[in-house]
Design brief:
Largest sheet: 7 strands, mixed
Strand content: 25-35%
Radius of gyration: 15 Å
Order of helices and strands: EHHHHEEEHEHEEH
Strand order of the largest sheet: 1-2-3-4-5-7-6
Structural class: alpha+beta
Number of strands: 7
Helix content: 25-40%
Shape: globular
Length: 165
């Protein structure tokens, strides 16, 4: 009998698994852009630990293994910045990313008072764009990532997370 994937808030003990998972998952994004200096690949373990301590970080678990994660924090303008959504390559396409996103949105709105959600993804990242649009995000602009990758910025109002949950 198979195990179910569960979603929960990340703990300090999850930081190392999140760090390793991000490194694995974002290899395909780096290859897509020919840029291996994207943030999830150059982030330090200490900064992942700091995010888990300070921000809203959720993980997907299959037994004791962290197989997905997402990071969010409320910015000064009341928007929740959501990022580093990743799911282990062997489990992609099974709704885990959408479940992680909903968990982060719920916590950011209910516990941290976010008025809207904002995320960004590379302009060539069709699978990411498809997921974000399916759960209600709309393109609001473009930006240049710190690593030079052209990004698409997407947003949705915080009350909209209820309709996608």
């Amino acid at each position: 009998m198979g195990m179910s994937v569960t979603i929960s808030a990340a703990t300090e003990q999850d930081a190392e698994q999140i760090f390793r998972l991000q490194y694995l998952c974002f290899q395909s994004e780096a290859a897509l852009y020919g840029n291996y200096r994207i943030d999830p690949l150059v982030q330090t373990l200490d900064s992942v630990r700091q995010e888990v301590a300070d921000d809203c970080v959720f993980v997907a678990r299959l037994g004791d293994e962290v197989v997905g994660s997402v990071h969010g924090r409320v910015t000064d303008d009341g928007a929740a910045s959501i990022g580093k959504l990743c799911v282990h390559p062997r489990l992609q396409g099974h709704g885990i990313g959408a479940r992680l996103l909903r968990a982060a949105e719920s916590a950011l709105a209910e516990e941290r008072g976010a008025k809207r959600f904002r995320l960004h993804t590379g302009h060539r990242s069709e699978n990411n764009l498809r997921l974000y649009r399916r759960v209600g995000y709309e393109t609001v602009g473009t930006a240049q990532g710190a690593d030079g990758v052209p990004m698409i910025v997407l947003e949705k109002p915080a009350e909209a997370y209820v309709t996608t949950a």
